[in-house]
Design brief:
Length: 153
């Protein structure tokens, strides 16, 4: 009996990884279908974070995207050059550069936001409100656990 539970647990972890990868791949395929050609999927994701968190800092984005700040800095610079985001010096601390969408970035953000809403509704179809709340609660627990594993290394 206990061996059966262990096997199910292994399969659950494996299936969750595969499902996460498949959802992400479909998401990227769907979300980036009509993006400006000079915008990569990861840059798009960063731009969406900025749109949802106007005035955020590179360190905030790095934490949210599970990437190093140096990686984020390169993408931020690229998006500034492409005209999607801008950096504005903060009055009190000149080292902090809050990130904002430009008009071009905001237009791309609004188009993508509508696409994400359609994508999310499709993913949630057939699930009850209670199922969705349970899923999000479980995801928050898994996310917290992943952070603890990462911090513990």
């Amino acid at each position: 009996m206990e061996e059966s539970i262990i096997d199910e647990s292994k399969n659950l972890h494996r299936n969750l990884r595969f499902l996460q990868k498949e959802v992400f791949n479909k998401f990227v395929e769907y979300a980036t279908a009509n993006l400006p050609p000079d915008l990569s999927a990861v840059e798009h994701r960063l731009m969406m974070y900025v749109g949802d968190h106007e005035g955020c800092l590179s360190v905030d984005i790095a934490a949210a995207m599970y990437l190093k700040k140096s990686t984020i800095s390169g993408m931020v610079n690229s998006l500034v050059e492409k005209g999607f985001i801008s950096l504005r010096k903060s009055g009190e601390d000149k080292r902090k550069l809050p990130i904002h969408l430009t008009e071009k970035g905001n237009e791309a953000y609004e188009v993508a936001k509508r696409k994400f809403e359609v994508f999310d509704k499709q993913l949630e179809s057939g699930l009850s409100e209670e199922d969705i709340k349970t899923l999000y609660r479980i995801c928050r627990v898994i996310e917290r656990n992943v952070k603890e594993v990462r911090d513990g290394d």
